[in-house]
Design a protein that fits this description.
It contains 3 helices and no strands. It is mostly helical. The protein is elongated and about 70 Å long.
């Protein structure tokens, strides 16, 4: 339930903030191209805005992927330490 509310908020709150701040798709297409409602800005966006928004989204995806890989690597190291300590009769197993 909390995950559903979080995702719903992340999808619908930014466009509402844009509209309240008078950032309409035809006046500020780059903001809209980086949101879930990017198709609203495509007719009024220039090619440069579309390319820039694509690069921004690709950069965010790469940053999140690198962070996730780092967390997975750290979790794997911790599991490996526990498994190698289990083979050592003098080591204490925390768990």
């Amino acid at each position: 339930m909390l995950a559903t509310l979080t995702v719903t908020g992340l999808v619908f709150v930014p466009p509402l903030v844009f509209l309240i701040g008078s950032a309409y798709p035809d006046t500020m297409p780059l903001l809209w191209l980086c949101s879930a409602f990017s198709l609203a800005a495509v007719p009024s966006a220039s090619i440069a805005n579309i390319v820039l928004a694509s690069l921004i989204q690709l950069g965010a995806l790469l940053a999140f992927s690198a962070q996730m890989a780092n967390q997975i690597r750290k979790a794997g190291e911790s599991e490996f330490k526990v498994l190698t300590a289990a083979g050592d009769p003098h080591a204490k197993i925390i768990g």
